[in-house]
């Protein structure tokens, strides 16, 4: 078997998996920018919204940062994978970018 992976045939966001007589390109974990294999522990660097923790790229919980990310009144922060979103608190709804009581 020839190791086709030695020639790095895959794209930047993929890693190469050598197989008998061939190879396949697999997509890197969402937490990675470039990788050497499967999983968040094989990242070359962590994607935006992720930080290296115990050799793995883990999601940053922007809602638990000391500095508030959702600044508008009656608005709550919801953490998402690699990011966050600001939503109106319970009992409030979005009216032209402002959270007003329902």
Automatic annotation (TrEMBL):
Sorted UniProt keywords: Disulfide bond, EGF-like domain, Repeat, Signal
Gene Ontology terms, MF aspect: calcium ion binding
Keyword Disulfide bond included in the entry's annotation: yes
Pfam families: EGF_CA (PF07645)
Record-annotated EGF-like domain positions: 59-98
Keyword Repeat: yes
SMART domains: EGF, EGF_CA, FU
InterPro entries membership: EGF, EGF-like_Ca-bd_dom, EGF-type_Asp/Asn_hydroxyl_site, EGF_Ca-bd_CS, Furin_repeat, NOTCH1_EGF-like
Family: Belongs to the CRELD family.
Name of the protein in question: CRE2A protein
Annotated source species: Cepphus grylle (Black guillemot)
This protein's encoding gene: Creld2a
């Amino acid at each position: 078997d020839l190791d086709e992976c030695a020639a790095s045939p895959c794209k930047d966001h993929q890693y190469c998996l050598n197989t008998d007589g061939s190879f396949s390109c697999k997509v890197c974990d969402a937490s990675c920018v470039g990788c050497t294999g499967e999983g968040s522990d094989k990242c070359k660097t962590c994607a935006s919204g992720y930080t290296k923790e115990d050799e793995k790229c883990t999601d940053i919980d922007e809602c638990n940062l000391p500095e508030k990310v959702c600044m508008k009144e009656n608005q709550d922060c919801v953490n998402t994978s690699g990011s966050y979103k600001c939503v109106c608190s319970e009992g409030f709804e979005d009216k032209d970018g402002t959270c007003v009581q329902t």
